[in-house]
Design goal:
2% strand; 15 helices; mainly alpha; 451 residues; 2 domains; Vanadium-containing Chloroperoxidase, domain 2
Length: 451
């Protein structure tokens, strides 16, 4: 972190234009507990990461989820020492050994907001790295500098610099951990060639100009929790068959009839949840955006904000690894292909069919973990919450309203059925997998009580 002794009027004005809002910058000094700070400033990083994900080449859904996740881990580890009775994730996550992360100096004061600010900015730079545009790099730098300037004034310079250095050291250590997970710089080779998909009547074939499937080896990446892959794989899908009396034909016919009889609202739902890469910030980005909205509504402290992002980070990362394993273990043909071959050669979907196999649904899996994490964070366990999802406004969509997180996840899963790109079994099994992963993250890791 470069030493900041003053903040010019011109620079401050530019950054205020980019990041101004209703955030608070608490004048808290020294090693005050993390809960004494507002989490507003940390949410700004996720807003910015959504924009950067959309604009950066190579960030398909698995790569995007991974990037969001390591930023979430860094933010948590930067503040964990300011949360009473909290435990580091080192020693709890697969491959992250105990005491492998930097420790704050004993008897030295830290500003945990400054540490989280530095860690989040540094990890964002590292996650997008080689494909990060100069313009977006400047936005990260400006946001970091602006936040630092707001907290710096209330702290002696040694405290501010020590805190920023600690945050950056955390980011560097977690980045070193990330480099061995199998997804390092995967945005440079999202199709992981060479890969030749198996051939057979039941097997996936390209459905668009994209002839190679995305990330066929992603299921081999290291999950944060081993059981999130080993214990969550779906049961075999309905046996493939072209027989008009078969269960598989009936499943495809169900998709065909749904698309031909969609209501206007069902078409809207399919498009709202499409979360196409490079047009939006992908499914994981949608769910992180929802978490940011919920944290804002909750007026969450930095402690709750950091813990919340970390929970979703671990769950989202592992959801894509688990789901991608099943996709390439089964390599199941998409409804688009099957229906055109066996039911109607002129069939078209409502939204574009993604370039990877069908079973199970990535959207359903990732929103399943979102349902579990949100239920634990914002309800008494029943999942009831009056939610107006405003996250699509930035992409030209409307607002969707829900009375519970299970209603939210069910609609997201069904959107793939309405869109004509998934069989219902894909969506149902994806939800089951996601909920299992969410349960593991919430119960297999020692999380602190925060407010």
């Amino acid at each position: 972190m470069k030493r900041i002794t003053q903040f010019t009027i011109v620079a401050c004005a530019a950054v205020l234009t980019l990041f101004s809002g209703c955030e608070r910058y608490d004048r808290v000094t020294d090693s005050t507990e993390t809960s004494a700070y507002s989490g507003d400033f940390l949410r700004k990083y996720y807003d910015l990461q959504c924009q950067i994900t959309k604009e950066t080449p190579g960030f398909f859904p698995p790569q995007a989820a991974r990037a969001f996740s390591y930023v979430g881990l860094s933010g948590y580890e930067a503040v964990v020492h300011g949360i009473p009775n909290a435990k580091s994730l080192a020693g709890q996550l697969n491959g992250l050994s105990a005491n492998s992360l930097p420790q704050p100096e004993e008897d030295k004061a830290y500003n945990w907001a400054i540490a989280a600010n530095a860690a989040s900015a540094e990890m964002m730079r590292k996650m997008f790295d080689l494909n990060l545009s100069e313009e977006n790099l400047q936005k990260i730098d400006q946001l970091e500098e602006y936040n630092y300037s707001q907290f710096y004034a209330a702290n002696p310079l040694p405290v501010a610099e020590r805190s920023a250095a600690f945050g950056k050291a955390i980011a560097e250590a977690i980045y070193q951990y990330s480099m061995t997970d199998g997804g390092h710089q995967s945005y440079m080779d999202a199709f992981q060639l060479p890969y030749s998909p198996p051939v057979g009547d039941h097997c996936w074939i390209p459905t668009s100009a994209t002839v190679h499937p995305i990330s066929p080896y992603w299921g081999q990446c290291r999950p944060f929790l081993i059981q999130n892959v080993s214990e969550t794989q779906p049961a075999p899908h309905i046996p493939h068959s072209a027989d008009v009396n078969s269960d598989f034909y009936a499943a495809a016919m169900e998709v065909y009839e749904q698309v031909n009889n969609n209501t206007p609202e069902q078409v809207e739902i399919a498009k709202f949840w499409a979360d196409d890469p490079f047009k939006t910030c992908t499914p994981a980005g949608h769910t992180f955006n929802l978490l940011s909205q919920l944290l804002e509504e909750d007026d969450a402290t930095l402690a709750k904000t950091a813990v919340s992002y970390a929970k979703l980070a671990i769950a989202e990362n592992d959801a894509f690894i688990s789901c991608w394993k099943s996709k390439y273990d089964f390599v199941l043909v998409r409804p688009f292909t099957y229906i055109r071959q066996h039911i109607d050669p002129d069939f078209n979907t409502v939204i574009g069919t993604p370039p990877f196999p069908a079973y199970s649904s990535g959207h359903s899996c990732e929103i399943g973990v979102g349902e579990m994490v949100f239920t634990e964070l914002f309800t008494n366990g029943d999942g009831n919450y009056e939610l107006s999802d405003r996250t699509g406004l930035q992409f030209g969509f409307g607002i969707r309203h829900f009375s519970s997180f299970s209603e939210m996840s069910a609609e997201c899963a069904s959107s793939r059925f309405y869109g004509g790109i998934h069989y219902q079994m894909d969506n149902l099994e994806g939800l089951v997998t996601g909920r299992k992963i969410g349960h593991n993250v919430l119960n297999q890791i020692s999380w602190p009580e925060v407010n």
